[in-house]
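2024-03-11 09:14:02 INFO worker-7 job=invfold-0412 stage=load source=structure_tokens
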């Protein structure tokens, strides 16, 4: 994954077995500390996924049905026909620009529609649950428009956490990935670290995944009898020459290139990221309106005590989906 260490892709498991080295090397490069590093291929995570699925199933929140709709592999997301936009050559693409394909298969569904009113009540009772205001309005508008039950398993491939008791089905990657927040704390054991650090005070995420964190995730948790995170803050995108910076597209600027050019301190992550900002690959740097260089990553702070940030940072995680980073944080 580095210039000195060539990488050749063969199989998904080879990819994810090798990928964490790059993230560990990045934490050393940027002088970021973390108390734990968890991957979604680890047994402790799989136990958490299986436990939450079984809890939802026991409570009648899951049923077997048939899915048909537009799916973006790059985004790992479903889109309604009305959400698609015109892409190159008039081809319909996802709002993020990702290609979509029509998918039909037998899946297990989560009864998301049953949680519409309860989610709206949650947002009303917790006005700071989604930020900034523009994203809160976006989330509430989406929920008010009517929620459909969510397909949460796949049969078209076998790469993933098997659905317990249902051979041939694997857990939908976003259900799997979100559970990583609590499997890192020992779930399904709700004592110990889980009792100390959950619910999280803050999830900080990219604006394109606010729906997963502010609609699906709290619904999964409340349906399982668990508390949702206290706040989700959705930041903007970095764009390169006007296009979203993306690992899939390969149009990102490696942190090492920024450190080599500007030094460590200007590149280390700030307390909160900017709105969508533009970068130039030609000058190998990214600036917001104040002229500072800001990297874009996802963060989660788990706990505060007496109004101060907890000294214990979150785990850093990687998922089975090649190139997806779960969470990372730093001290100080």
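2024-03-11 09:14:09 INFO worker-7 stage=emit residues=332
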């Amino acid at each position: 994954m580095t210039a000195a260490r060539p990488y050749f892709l063969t199989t998904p498991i080879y990819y994810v077995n090798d990928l964490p080295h790059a993230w560990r090397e990045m934490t050393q490069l940027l002088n970021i500390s973390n108390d734990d590093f968890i991957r979604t291929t680890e047994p402790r995570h799989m136990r958490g996924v299986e436990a939450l699925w079984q809890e939802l199933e026991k409570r009648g929140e899951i049923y077997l049905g048939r899915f048909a709709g537009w799916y973006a592999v790059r985004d790992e997301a479903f889109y309604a026909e009305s959400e698609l936009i015109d892409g190159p050559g008039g081809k319909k693409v996802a709002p993020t620009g990702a290609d979509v394909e029509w998918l039909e298969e037998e899946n297990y569904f989560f009864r998301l529609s049953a949680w519409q009113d309860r989610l709206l009540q949650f947002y009303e009772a917790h006005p700071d649950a989604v930020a900034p205001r523009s994203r809160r309005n976006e989330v509430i508008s989406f929920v008010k428009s009517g929620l459909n039950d969510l397909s949460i398993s796949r049969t078209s491939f076998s790469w993933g956490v098997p659905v317990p008791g249902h051979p041939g089905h694997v857990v939908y990657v976003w259900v799997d990935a979100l559970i990583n927040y609590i499997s890192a704390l020992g779930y399904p054991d709700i004592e110990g670290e889980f009792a100390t650090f959950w619910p999280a005070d803050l999830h900080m995420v990219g604006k394109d995944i606010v729906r997963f964190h502010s609609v699906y995730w709290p619904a999964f948790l409340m349906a399982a009898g668990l508390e949702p995170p206290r706040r989700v803050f959705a930041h903007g995108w970095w764009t390169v020459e006007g296009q979203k910076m993306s690992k899939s597209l390969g149009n990102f600027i490696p942190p090492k290139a920024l450190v080599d050019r500007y030094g460590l301190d200007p590149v280390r992550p700030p307390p909160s990221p900017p709105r969508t900002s533009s970068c130039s690959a030609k000058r190998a740097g990214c600036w917001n309106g104040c002229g500072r260089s800001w990297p874009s990553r996802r963060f989660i702070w788990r706990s505060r005590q007496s109004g101060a940030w907890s000294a214990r940072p979150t785990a850093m995680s990687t998922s089975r989906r090649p190139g997806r980073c779960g969470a990372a944080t730093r001290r100080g």
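2024-03-11 09:14:09 INFO worker-7 stage=report msg="The CA atoms of residues 155 and 167 lie 9 Å apart."
2024-03-11 09:14:10 INFO worker-7 job finished
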